[in-house]
């Protein structure tokens, strides 16, 4: 029988089950902060967004929506179940329209994800640079972008593609000022537009 957990007191520490939390627990736990992730059975609470992170997110989101073929859709900050103990929330994901979880859906499945994008924040460096890419690759997500703030304050995009034999990502490019790619579909993003008003 499903258990319902309550964190009525936001400062109260939730005691995990002996084998850690499971992906489905995120739908039953009440009172969790928004954008809580599950990594290796451990709940991960995200810090408040910095301006760079917030402003950068709309660049890939809008560009992917603009350039994606009609049979693909784009989700922002939406949970993805990789396996029983891992349910991260990539900053942006691209999936087939058929993978739409419906109006009450709370997650996507890794096998449907065409592209996962993470924008690195100070509190998520290790997760976004090491932990999540390894888990995304192991789950078979073919395309991964990591976006970091460059010395000039502009986004720098590190692009990776899955080597299916190794189940690991191979870097395919580091992009400053502009991102122009042919896969997973042709697209072009002006990375200097971070400081412009959102259209």
Description:
The chain is an alpha/beta fold and 199 residues long. Helices cover 16% and strands 31% of the residues. The chain has two helices and 14 strands, in the order ββββαβββββαβββββ. It has a six-stranded mixed sheet with strand order 5-7-9-10-11-12. A two-stranded parallel sheet has the order 1-2. It is globular and about 45 Å long.
Distance between the termini: 47 Å
Largest sheet: spatial strand order: 5-7-9-10-11-12
Which band does the percent of strand residues land in? 25-35%
- Secondary structure: number of strands: 14
Summed up, the helix count is: 2
Class derived from helix and strand content: alpha/beta
**Mean pLDDT figure:** 90
Low-confidence stretches: 1-11
Global Rg:
17 Å
Q: The biggest beta sheet, please?
A: 6 strands, mixed
In N-to-C order, the SSE pattern is: EEEEHEEEEEHEEEEE
Shape: globular
Q: What proportion of the residues is helical, as a percent range? A: 10-25%
């Amino acid at each position: 029988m499903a258990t319902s957990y309550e964190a009525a007191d936001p400062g109260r520490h939730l005691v995990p089950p002996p084998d850690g939390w499971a992906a489905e627990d995120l739908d039953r736990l009440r009172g969790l902060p928004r954008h809580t992730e599950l990594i290796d059975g451990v709940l991960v609470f995200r810090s408040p967004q910095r301006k760079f992170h917030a402003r950068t997110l709309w660049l890939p989101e809008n560009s992917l929506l603009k350039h994606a073929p009609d049979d693909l859709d784009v989700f922002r900050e939406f949970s993805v179940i990789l396996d029983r103990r891992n349910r991260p929330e990539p900053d942006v994901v691209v999936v087939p329209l058929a993978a739409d979880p419906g109006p009450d859906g709370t997650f996507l499945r890794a096998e449907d994800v065409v592209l996962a994008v993470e924008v690195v924040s100070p509190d998520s460096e290790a997760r976004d640079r090491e932990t999540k890419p390894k888990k995304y690759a192991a789950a078979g997500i073919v395309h991964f972008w990591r976006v970091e703030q460059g010395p000039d304050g502009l986004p720098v995009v590190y692009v990776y593609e899955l080597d299916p034999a190794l189940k690991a990502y191979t870097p395919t490019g580091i992009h400053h000022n502009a991102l122009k790619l042919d896969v997973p579909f042709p697209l072009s993003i002006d990375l200097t537009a971070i400081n412009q008003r959102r259209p």
